[in-house]
Amino acid sequence: MSPVVFGILAVLLMVSAFGVVLQSSPVRSALSLVVTLFLIAVMFLLLDAPLVAVLQVAVYAGAIVVLFLFVIMLLNLQDEPRAMARASILFSAVLLGSLFLLALLRLFIAPNRVRFGVGMMSAVSPDFGSVGSLGAQLFTRHLLAFEVTSILLLVAIIGAVVLAKRRLA
Amino acid sequence: MVLEIGIALLRIVAVLAMVMVMAGIYGWFERKVSALMQDRIGANRASIFGFAGAGLINTMMADPLKFATKEDFVPSGVDRLLHTLAPCVGLFAVLVAFAALPFGDTVQVGGRYVPLQAVPLNVGILYILAMLSLSVYGVVLGGWASNNRFSFLGGIRGSAQMISYELAMGLSLVAMVMTYGTIDLQEMVRAQGHLIGGWLPAWGIFYQPLAFLLFLIAGIAETKRAPFDLPEGESELVGGYFTEYSGMKYLMFFMSDFIEVGVVAGIIATLFFGGWQVPYLGADGFHFPFGLSLALPAVVVILLQLATFLLKVVFFGWLQILIRWTLPRLRYDQLMWLGWKGMLPVSLFNVLATALIVLAVQGSR
Amino acid sequence: MHEAATVQVNYLWLIPVFPALGVLFNAFVGPRAGKAAVSLVAPAVVGASFLTGCYAFMQLLSQSHGAALVQRLYPWITAGTLQIDVAFRVDALSAVMVLIVSGVGFLIHVYSVGYMSHDPSYARYFTYLNLFTFAMLILVLADNLPLLFVGWEGVGLCSYLLIGFWFTVEANANAGKKAFIVNRIGDAGFLLGLFLLFWNLGPGAHTLSFPEISQAAQRIAPAILTAITLLLFVGATGKSAQLPLYVWLPDAMAGPTPVSALIHAATMVTAGVYMIARLHSLFLLSATTLAVVATVGAATALFAATIGLLQNDIKKVLAYSTVSQLGYMFLGVGVGAFGAGIFHLMTHAFFKGLLFLGAGSVIHGMSGEQDMRKMGGLRKHMPITFWTFLVATIAITGVPGFAGFFSKDEILAQAFGSPHGSPWLWAIGFVAAGMTSFYMYRLLFLTFFGECRADEHTRHHIHESPLTMTVPLMVLAVLSVFGGYIPVPEFLQPVLGHEAGHLDAGTEHMLLGASVLVVFAGLGIATLFYMLQPGLPVLLAQKLSGLYDVVYNKYYVDEFYDAVLVRPTVIVSTWMWRIFDVGVIDGLVNGAAQAVAANSGLWRRWQTGNTQQYAVSMVLGAMAILGYFAWR
Amino acid sequence: MTPVPISWFLILGAVLFTIGTLGVMIRRNVIVIFLSIELMLNAVNLVFVSFARQLHSMDGQVIVFFVMTVAAAEAAVGLAIIISVFRNRETVNVDEFNLLHW
User: Fold this and answer.
1) Using CA atoms, how far apart are residues C616 and C459, in angstroms rounded to an integer?
2) What's the rounded Cα separation, in Å, for the pair C156 and C143?
3) Which sign does the torsion angle of CA B27, B29, B35, B41 carry?
4) Which architecture characterizes domain A3-123 according to CATH?
5) Could you say which of D49, D56, D62 has the minimum Cβ distance to residue A138?
6) Residue B29 above 90 pLDDT?
7) Neighbors of chain A with 3 or more C-beta pairs under 8 Å
8) Are chains C and B touching, using the cut-off of 8 Å on CB pairs and a minimum of 3 such pairs?
């Protein structure tokens, strides 16, 4: 059953991802991204990462993309007559993209390339991916990084305010 | 396997039904309470044999029928897909949010343990937050897809307002999580079955009165109801983000509004007022502090608990409607001021104070 | 040197620090604090140095003979085994020098308060003057040659700054530049000597302190030692205005007169003498160098005296007199009479300082007039100046009983009797002494006697100087009288060794009598020329017009230097600038820049401003890395 | 439950990442480019979580947490830049942001 679920989710994911990239309306792109994020959250659930999944929905879909939508609406961006780049770039991008995918797949699939790239998933302990285990990691091994993110966020807040504030003439 | 799926489906259907009924009750409250407060009769055509209270049934049947039969008007030049999607997204988000609320203890039926909860999740409360944060898309999309300045302004206002108040809301819940030491809602409710000093039920409100106040305010702001109803402020924006909606879609917006009231009421009941816990009621009956005991069969206990939970949810929904008809609407700058400069610092302070107290209590053990 | 008798003390740093604090105060607070604060602080810090110096002197006297007080402050240059400290040494020699520098310096600071009182750049003046005192004290206190060189350069800088103090007049600025450049020529020699010395000191020379140098010098080959000492002496001729580098000193009179008194008479110009005395153990090892020093000294003494005979500017006469007297000092150290040289240095500091200050007082009273032909009869108007000036004149000319007599006689006796000396050297000094007597009395007569030749306006303003100026004059006058009774050579003996020559009593008395005679001969001729028969000098000048012109124009040395050295240098420099600097150096620099620009011009076409193209390029780069890992 | 090989998730991540990359390269609207970058970040997150699951290590999930934080900061600042650019140039098309070139 899981492969079936995975297959359905994967197809939906790819469709919505292409929706982000190919749709001419920015609002629709953003909404496709929300769908993508939601589906990836489901993938996280399948990978025993419930907390990350919930955070994905709450923070990514619920806040960050809303911010995008907010800006899109603020700038009142409508459908573009010419959404894509010029042909030469389009061509090289598609070429490069397929090469890129090829290289990634080779890295991930080819046997003896990557030690953990093959094989099935083994069972995990019940508290794997729980709030407790993630929190314990966050506040012990990764404490410094965690604290530094607070500074990053502060800087981002100040930067956003300074940049977006209309200068008084 | 089939049985399990069946039980799960049953739970889900039960919750859905409950939510729908709840929304209907709130709709009726809205009319009768407002009428009462404004010293008028209100919804007088919906009484049965002159008894207004029985109009509840009438309202619950008649209103949806009325909306369903109305013309589904779509303005020209809109993104039809998004226009249709908007109310669905909104409704979906609040409906699934309800799924994590426990409405009774785990019951033992024929050797299986069945939690009285649509979806037992170990990330419980975070899940509800996540889903509630998705409900903003209904507002934003509705505003955007209507191709109407008023709708658009309503959508913009709504998104900013909901993101702003989500912070205070989340932080007040963080304080609760710290108090209980778990994020599992069922666990939280169980923890409230104890007694403080042998007589006072150990409800969250007694531990975290400030968090309750914060959550109540933020919750009302999240539901976009007065005094925080700026996204739909009739006197300014006609109807805000659902100006251009009619028929079933309008009903869906309407329902998601009331269901959200229900969700907020449910969270308040669960976190601050003992959820399905009845004071002094244990699994085998009442044990009053003054020594009296009253043994009850398990089924009665479960039904009592279920009824209590529903009663609490209805009560807090009613309270919100009371507030909605009592307070005047804020100005937008006041709204933002309250959210960012009032609620956010206070809730941060609350988290800090809670952390210190928890630390002190743990240290003294 | 007596190594054992070294006493570690901890207060010597205070001596130079006081003037340094004064510099900071006058430079940063002074301009705002007002003249009163500056005139209080600037002399006070030098006075504090003097008192500290006295304390050190007292402690030195209480020690055994030949002792030295030493303070190591901190390591300065550390490289390999080389460790040069900032360290101060007070032995008999530097004690005398410290007292001269800070004592005379203090008097001149006090004098300057009156003399400079109307100058708008009052605080700047005292900043420079304090800075000079600081540098000079570093020079004389230094325990090692590199630190001495720091002071040496420091006083050179201050000299430049003070000569060009009134830099708005181009001539003054040029005089400052001239002094600096000529000093640089000398300093180049000094530096070369320093390097040659370091190079040849060999292992064991870690600190380059003076006792260490004098010990290590024994191991250096005589020929190299001669080269070293000669190069050092080149430095001394620059700093102390000896032939052929004396030309800057007369021009240096462009600075304020107290500066001439302090720097260009009493202290800085004697640094060369001090340096040779300090390194006497080095110089004693090279007879050739000593002969050169003595010869140059004697030649300078005579040469400058002849020019001094005919000068009409009161300060110029004193300037050439200073050059001449410095020649005497070099004559002294050149014949191995280091104590006598330092002795004359001290007495000269007193009476020449007094003469300059007196001249300053006269100029002050004459509203800035410096030409003696427009003076005369000032005796009545400026009695204190006159009497003190008279004392100084008597002292410098060597009338028995006054300070100059003792030191000059000592040098002349040594020039005659020392193994390094010769009757010829004595004869030159003897003639120069006569000329000194003549031009000094000429100056005295022209200035203070006879009728006043100034114009009406100036005459009305002639006045005696204020107390701040006359009190230092009186103090210096007392010193000019009694300074000769201080047994300086004996005091210095433990440091500088015994005087080389011994004369029998008869010869000594005969020489003494001769020099007294020549002094009075000079006095007589001056009296004849400028008191009794004022027409005579003009007549003589007409008779010997050729010789007169040459001497009057200072032997055309400046013109000669200008033609032989300055002009070719300017021409070569101009050529270097136009062709080499502009063409080659700038060409290289600009060419490099142009090459980069051309190259960038090629590459910048890559930067189109098209973001998508950038994105594609970025992915291309990522692709390259990824591809490397995928297909490696 | 029939298990799914870990490589399936990895391949899905690779595909999503490539789609995001394509979006960055071919779109003219800067906001859509931004969205595509978010898509790339999420593809990487998916791979991280897969590896975490496979290696039984929480580190992968912790990194996802940090990626989200950085994405939030990046979105705030990036969108602020876009707004101020839009204010000056009245466009969000990247091929019209061409002042910074020779």
Assistant:
1) 94
2) 20
3) positive
4) Up-down Bundle (1.20)
5) D62
6) no
7) B, C, D
8) no
User: Of all helices (H) and strands (E), which one includes residue B293?
Assistant: strand B293-295
Closest Cα of chain D to A10: distance in Å?
A: 7
Nearest to A71 among D31, D50, D74 (CB): D31
- Top CATH class, D6-96: mainly alpha
pLDDT, averaged across chain B: 81
Question: In this predicted structure, which of C8-22, C229-243, C479-493 has the lowest mean pLDDT?
Answer: C479-493
Look up residue B326 and give its two tokens. Answer: 């009592």
Q: Which letter does DSSP use for residue D33 in this model? A: H
Q: Does D33 touch chain C (CB under 8 A)?
A: yes
Q: Does C611 score more than 80 pLDDT?
A: no
Q: Do C607 and D98 touch (CB under 8 A)?
A: no
A57/B156 Cβ within 8 A: no
Mean pLDDT by 10 residues, chain A (169 residues): 81 91 86 90 86 87 85 78 75 85 78 51 73 85 89 91 74
Q: How many CB pairs under 8 A join A and C?
A: 34
Domain boundaries, given as residue ranges, for chain D = 6-96
Distance from CA of A46 to the nearest CA of B (A): 14
Decide if C197 contacts C286 (C-beta within 8 A): no
Burial grade of C97 (CB within 10 A; 0-12, 13-18, 19 or more): buried
Joined tokens for residue C586: 């700038």
Do β-strands C6-8 and C68-79 pair in parallel, antiparallel, or remain unpaired?
parallel
pTM: 0.57
Predicted complex ipTM: 0.74
Q: Does A98 touch chain C (CB under 8 A)?
A: no
Q: Is the pLDDT of residue C105 over 90?
A: yes
Min distance A113 CA to chain D CA atoms (Å): 12
Within 127-156 of A, beta carbons closer than 8 Å to D belong to 128-129, 133-134, 137-138, 141-142, 145, 149, 152-153, 155-156
Give dist(CA C327, CA C298) in Å, integer. 6
Nearest CA in chain A to C627: A103
> What are the C-alpha distances in Å from C210 to residues C40, C239, C334, C337, C486?
37, 20, 20, 19, 26
Measured between alpha carbons, how far is D22 from D16 in angstroms, rounded to an integer?
A: 10
The sheet with strand C6-8 has its strands ordered as C6-8, C68-79, C82-90
Instruction: Return the residue of A nearest to B151 by Cα.
Output: A73
Cα B128 from Cα B124, distance rounded (Å): 7
Give every strand in the sheet of B293-295, ordered side by side.
B281-282, B285-287, B293-295
Nearest to D73 among A3, A18, A153 (CB): A153
DSSP B135: T
Which residue ranges make up each domain of chain B? 2-364
Burial of residue A118 (number of CB atoms within 10 Å: 0-12, 13-18, 19+): middle
CA-to-CA separations, D15 to C134, C618, D44, D94, in angstroms, rounded: 79, 19, 11, 25
Please state, in angstroms and as integers, the Cα–Cα distance from residue A108 to each residue in A117, A119, C372, C526, following that order: 6, 12, 105, 114
Where are the strands (E) in D1-102, listed by range? Answer: none
- Inter-chain CB proximity B134 and A57 less than 8 Å: yes
Gap between the Cα atoms of C208 and C229, Å rounded: 16
Do C352 and C325 touch, CB atoms closer than 8 A? Answer: yes
Average pLDDT, chain C: 87
Residues from chain A contacting residue B97 (CB–CB below 8 Å): none
**Does C622 contact A at CB distance below 8 Å?**
yes
**Which chain C residue's Cα is nearest to A91?**
C616
CA of A105: which chain C residue's CA is closest? C630
Chain C residues closer than 8 Å to D99 by CB = 609
Task: Please list, in sequence order, all residues whose beta carbon lies within 8 angstroms of the beta carbon of residue C464, skipping any fewer than 6 positions away.
Answer: C365, C381, C382, C383, C384, C385, C470
